[in-house]
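Tip: read the tokens left to right.
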């Protein structure tokens, strides 16, 4: 969506300031990933992922690429959310804003 907004600007001069993804799996082919990295979005895209989340590291057919600068997020050694499960966005929100 960020690429679409950058390519087709919205009325009112709205633009994309940054892109944050949470535990996103690889989804871009090599050509898209290379072009994205060279675009304005390449420097303001952040891939927030728990240290042991298995989704960002999945190896799928076609060797898709993960986009964004990695930002590790830890729930603590004894936190149940720091395992390879609890991948949902709700769990990421809970780690980023405890008590929400």
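Filled-in amino acids:
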């Amino acid at each position: 969506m960020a690429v679409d907004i950058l390519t087709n600007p919205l009325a009112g001069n709205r633009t994309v300031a940054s892109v944050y993804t949470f535990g996103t799996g690889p989804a871009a082919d090599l050509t898209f990933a290379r072009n994205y990295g060279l675009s304005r979005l390449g420097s303001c895209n952040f891939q927030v992922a728990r240290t042991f989340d298995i989704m960002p590291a999945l190896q799928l057919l076609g060797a898709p690429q993960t986009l964004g600068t990695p930002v590790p997020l830890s729930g603590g050694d004894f936190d149940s959310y720091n395992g390879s499960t609890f991948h949902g966005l709700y769990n990421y929100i809970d780690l980023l804003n405890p008590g929400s």
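The two ends are 27 Å apart (CA to CA). The first strand starts at residue 19 and ends at 22.
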